[in-house]
Amino acid sequence: MKKSLLFDLLKFAMLHPKIGVQIVQSALQSYNDSKQDVKTLDVRSLQVSEVINNLFPHTTISLVKLRENLTTLHNYLTNFFEKLENKNYPSKEKPYPIDYSLDDSSSLFLYILCKIVKPDTVVETGVAYGRSSSYILQALSENNKGNLYSIDSIFRPWESKQMIGSVIPKDLTNRWKFIFGPSSTELKKLLDKLGMVDIFFHDSLHTSKNMMFEFETAWPFIKNDGFLISDDITGNNAFYKFSKSKNLQPIIISSKNKNSMIGILHKF
Known about the structure:
alpha/beta
């Protein structure tokens, strides 16, 4: 990290002690994870179409038609990220790297899953620009049913509340409920308030400790026949351990980035 960025980070931590503690804890957790011998899940990764056929073998929904439904949203998101390409990172205008967002296959899966399941309640941790949120909200809008509850906060001096979810089209925000704060303090409170959820999606701090906390906190609130989904499952053993603890065989979606795979657990 450049000295200027490190200085800004230290200054930010001093001015915001609670966030400063979270920054230090996150760094320590990431360091500990780097020392882990990461276990490989003994599961073949699948393409989105294979995943859908695996989960819903009797669905009559046309995946080709669903992809066509996303043309307008895809063009909108592409335009948004193209405008950011020449911006400096990290900065207030570009607080997250462009590749920080989920790739197209993962986003497509979230959209198709919500179209088939027609959830009443979806909870996600980690928003960043809001790419995955947009795909979920597009499905909820087309379903004319359900709400997305998203939890995120600012952890760096170049981040701002205004940029969280900034890519989400305005016409989709009526079903979006944003909770500002870290998942460590906000997730349990939200779940207690909601009662049960159809889908839980982890995409916040990808450390073993935080992932296990979110999985274990969310699982009791996921309805039978609901889903726990996690991005970035290959950086540590959290998803592997949690899957084993529930005696469940996870489903893994293929990704262009082998270090950023998405895992799915179907709760029965």
